[in-house]
Design brief:
CATH class: Alpha Beta
Number of strands: 8
CATH superfamily: Alpha/Beta hydrolase fold, catalytic domain
Largest sheet: 8 strands, mixed
Distance between the termini: 47 Å
Strand order of the largest sheet: 1-2-4-3-5-6-7-8
Number of helices: 10
CATH architecture: 3-Layer(aba) Sandwich
CATH topology: Rossmann fold
Oligomer: single chain
Structural class: alpha/beta
């Protein structure tokens, strides 16, 4: 199988050919389609019912054990709302990883990330801080981004005192990657803060008005179909006119991306959000920011959460990227970077 990201060209056409997909990945994808085809749609079952089922370890994704080391803290958010943060910190962390979970802005929870955050803590030396941001449709845009901005602002001011390090990284998967990009732009524009050392952006949704791969994916039930994307977006943007769906605060593909941190974009070729990562990587680099693009043949949406060789490869690269960008001498801007205290979360 070709390398995930050839040094000479991240757009190596060999990565996108059917023959590049390993037998293991192909068999896994076929099993996922069979499994999900028997499942109902979240908008018919009800968002909270699906959340409850996932919390019980039911559904297509494997149950995630909770860490005994995790602790929860609460910070002040916008309008007096209290934002919960789930913290998993190794001894003497070298930095702090602000994590924003996926789930289409509708599903997911900070407590489902413990295994991943512990892995990043072991391999990259980072304290994990996962945000329990408000979910749609009960709390549509801009509630979720407001909570993520509040968490980023709090870390920018308090990470050194709380964790012994002011080095910051940010990241997330799917809707979480969207929120990570939005948060970086908000922190730059609203608070004059560009101190994040790295952005780990995993199969994100960066154009809510739909990229070609989103529109063309159709009804193939490999985790995320076109209709799933439509329903998630409609729930998240309840009360927001479609004319505003390309607003940079909603679809960060259209944002001014100058002055943002080095980023790693991870995506599989069998993901409806493939174009989002390809396009965002191009815009990120054309804005003058360092970036890496890791494309995984046959990777479906969420592939790195499963016991696959492809997942192991992708997760190892994420850990290496975060470690390299946050260790002493990496040239990061976080340590010692002040924040404009005259601004507040909006």
């Amino acid at each position: 199988m070709p390398d995930a990201n050839p040094k000479n060209s991240p757009f190596d056409p060999e990565l996108f050919k059917p023959e590049a997909i390993s037998a293991e990945t192909r068999a896994f994808n076929e099993a996922v389609v069979k499994l999900i085809s028997k499942m109902g749609n979240w908008w018919e079952i009800g968002a909270q019912n699906v959340r409850d089922a996932v919390a019980r370890g039911e559904g297509m994704f494997p149950p995630v054990p909770k860490s005994e080391r995790a602790r929860t803290m609460t910070i002040a958010g916008k309008g007096g709302h209290q934002v919960s943060l789930r913290v998993l910190a190794p001894d003497n962390p070298k930095g702090v990883y602000l994590h924003l979970h996926g789930g289409g802005w509708v599903l997911g929870a900070s407590g489902l990330q413990d295994v991943m955050l512990e892995r990043i803590g072991r391999n990259a030396g980072l304290a994990g801080v996962s945000v329990e941001y408000r979910l749609a449709p009960e709390n549509p845009y801009p509630a979720g981004p407001d909570d993520c901005e509040a968490a980023a602002l709090w870390l920018a001011k308090n990470a050194k005192a709380e964790f012994g390090t002011g080095v910051l990284a940010i990241g997330g998967e799917s809707a979480g990657a969207n929120l990570a990009a939005v948060t970086l732009v908000r922190m730059r524009d609203r608070h004059s803060f560009t101190g994040f050392a790295a952005a780990n952006l995993v199969y994100g949704a960066y154009d809510i008005s739909m990229t070609p791969s989103q529109k063309l994916f159709g009804d193939y039930r490999l985790v995320l179909r076109t209709i799933d994307l439509e329903k998630f977006s409609e729930a998240y943007l309840t009360g927001t006119s479609r004319e505003k769906w390309r607003d940079p605060d909603i679809s960060p593909l259209y944002a001014d991306l100058k002055g943002l941190p080095p980023a790693l974009f991870t995506v599989g070729t069998s993901d409806a959000l493939l174009d989002d990562s390809l396009f965002m990587y191009a815009r990120w680099t054309s804005a003058g920011n360092p970036a890496e693009l890791a494309v995984y043949p046959g990777g479906a949406h969420g592939f790195n959460a499963f016991p696959l060789s492809l997942a192991k490869e992708a997760n190892e690269r994420v850990d290496e990227f975060l470690k390299a960008r946050t260790q002493p001498g990496a040239g990061h801007a976080s340590e010692g970077r002040g924040i404009n205290d005259r601004t507040t979360a909006r």
